[in-house]
Amino acid sequence: MATRDSAATKQRILDAATAEFAQYGLAGARVDRIASRADANKQLIYAYFSSKEGLFDAAIEANIARLLDTVPFDADDLPAYAGRLFDFAVAHPQLVRLLRWHQLERPGVLNQLPQTAESNRRKALALTEAQAARKVSEVLPADQLLTLVLALIHGSAETIFGEGTEPVAIERETLITGVRRLITPP
């Protein structure tokens, strides 16, 4: 009898869920399709993730973990960080769609997820330290500045997937320039 590899099964489910939720959102996604794509049964999905919403949140957190591992935050060089995060989004359009669906269908939940909340706390602390060292403008409190910078990055990344948008290189440079101007002390 073959032993089950629960970590591999969970990863297959998360990969299938990411694709399904990115394409259809929470309301349009079907657990049957996720199970089929992951070569797992529905009952196992519910055993691991409790609910469709739990699976949706887990898929977001898994993708955010990959993003955080790939694009470390740098409060001392926010423009370069913005450029790297933009590049990651361009390379992973499925994540941009997944985030948009999550924001639309579960407003406010993303920032309450443990990994996201802890990441934002660490980023705001690093920004506070950069502000105290006069490397970053103190015009806005660190948490508000972080929210604004992340909104600029995500907004820029989303615009490149529409029709009639600026070429990616121009959008990237515009983002970096905007972040630089926002955070440069007066």
What is the mean pLDDT?
90
Task: Give the radius of gyration.
Answer: 18 Å
Number of domains: 2
Overall geometry: elongated
The separation of the N and C termini measures: 69 Å
What is the CATH architecture term of the largest domain? Orthogonal Bundle
The CATH superfamily label of the largest domain reads Tetracycline Repressor, domain 2
The ordered H/E elements are: HHHHHHHHH
Give helix % range: over 70%
Q: Low-confidence parts lasting 5 or more residues at pLDDT below 50?
A: none
Find the structural class using helix and strand composition: mainly alpha
Describe the largest sheet. Answer: none
Examine the coordinates and then state which fold CATH places here, giving the name of the CATH topology of the largest domain. Tetracycline Repressor, domain 2
CATH class of the largest domain: Mainly Alpha
**Count of discrete alpha- or pi-helical segments spanning 4 or more residues:** 9
Describe the protein's architecture and organization.
This protein has nine helices and no strands. The protein has 186 residues and is mainly alpha-helical. It folds into two domains: 1-52, Homeodomain-like (Arc Repressor Mutant, subunit A); 71-183, Orthogonal Bundle (Tetracycline Repressor, domain 2), CATH 1.10.357.10. Helix 1 (6-28) crosses helix 4 (52-70) and helix 8 (142-159) packs antiparallel against helix 9.
Blueprint of the fold:
Elements: H1 6-28, H2 31-38, H3 42-49, H4 52-70, H5 78-91, H6 93-105, H7 114-132, H8 142-159, H9 168-183
Helix pairs in contact: 1-2, 1-4, 1-6, 3-4, 4-6, 5-8, 5-9, 7-8, 8-9
